[in-house]
Amino acid sequence: MMEKSVVPYLALLLVQLLFGLNFPASKIILEQVPPVLWSAVRMAIAAVLMFIAAFIIVPKADRKMDVRFLQKTFIFGFFGIVLCQTFFMIGLHNTTSTNGAVLNTLIPIFTLMIAILLKKEKFTLNRAFGFLIAVLGVLVLRKIEDFSTSMATFKGDLFMILNCVSLAIFFNISRDFLRVNSAFWVTAWMFLFGSLVIGLFCMGDFHLLLSTHIDSRLGWAMGYNIIGATMLTYFLNSWTLKRVSPSSVAVFIYMQPVIAVLYAWVIQHELPSVRTLIAVLCIFTGVMVGVVQRPGRKAVAESSTL
Asked: Is position 77 within any domain?
């Protein structure tokens, strides 16, 4: 592996667990709040909380605010938050859930392709085989036979693909910068810039929040979405990008459907089918093969800091 410690990989598993449990919370929120509006609000709240925590946790010497730092964090926030969130929301609104789930399997593939083009990683048969096995597992689990394209879903499918590309770009361009800067501090600025830009697209909708009745159910869902599925996930992704390759971070996205299966099994008592078990086995195998390097094979030398 790229690092002897298994901690970064456990962190990536935690990210997928947080994302997997976020789906029911998001459904509760989106019943009452428009998706793009909520994206702006949760990023803004997360930014405030992250800055408060950063001023407590991050040493003053690591809290950079020079022009170059702000330019970089704006770019990362633009690709990793603004484009990613906007493309995903528009895409999900204009396509089927099956199409969206299947197209999301492109994220690790695009990430690896861009990493190879930027010469941050080398193409290896070992890694390619791992990605292929994981993709096949996800496609089996997501019922690829239900995938269908038409003019009705074309716009949504296109935006889902753009979402995959934007996240893949973020994984690749941010890694070198994160290696020499505080992930906590960088994430806080990304949230701030992301919330400001997304907020410009929905300024006329902010009054809708004032008329939203926030009961305990909605409050808990919002709290989890902000702290668990936004602050923790983005921070952990940024933290792990310091320690493992961008493609390794991305390939763990294939664990999300596995988390969904476990959630349905434990919480909803839905026993997995033989098809599901085979798919889960493929995903586990592919992820492990995709992130494990052969003994003696070292990662490509790091490029210069962005």
From this structure: yes
* C-beta atoms surrounding 64 within 10 Å: 17
Residue 202, domain extent: 7-291
Give the integer Cα–Cα distance in Å for 255 and 119: 26
**pLDDT tens-digit series, residues 273-293:** 777 788 778 887 888 777 665
Token digits of residue 123: 């193409």
33 lies in a domain?
Answer: yes
- Give the whole-angstrom CA distance, residue 242 versus residue 205: 37
CA quadruple 40, 180, 130, 128: dihedral sign: positive
The C-alpha R_g of the chain, in whole angstroms, comes to: 19
Tell me if 305 is assigned to some domain. Answer: no
Residue 202 included in any domain: yes
Return all residues near 295 (Cβ < 8 A) that are at least 6 apart: none
CB neighbours of residue 275 within 10 Å: 11
Looking at residue 260, its amino acid is: A
Of 101, 24, 147, the C-alpha closest to 257 is: 101
Per-residue model confidence as pLDDT tens digits over 36-81 = 888 899 999 999 999 999 999 999 999 999 999 999 999 999 999 9
Spatial distance between the Cα atoms of 290 and 105, rounded to a whole number of angstroms: 14
Residue 206 CA to residue 202 CA, distance in Å, equals 7
Q: Which two tokens stand for residue 56?
A: 């407590």
CA 272 remoteness from chain centre: 26
Tell me the C-alpha distance between 107 and 89, whole Å.
16
List, in sequence order, the alpha helices (H) in 58-150.
67-77, 84-94, 97-103, 106-117, 125-141
| Helix or strand (DSSP H, E) at 282 | helix 274-291
- Return left, alpha or beta for 119; rule: phi > 0 is left, psi -120 to 50 is alpha, else beta: left
Q: Looking at the 3D structure of the chain, how many domains does it have?
A: 1
Do 196 and 39 form a contact (C-beta atoms < 8 A)? no
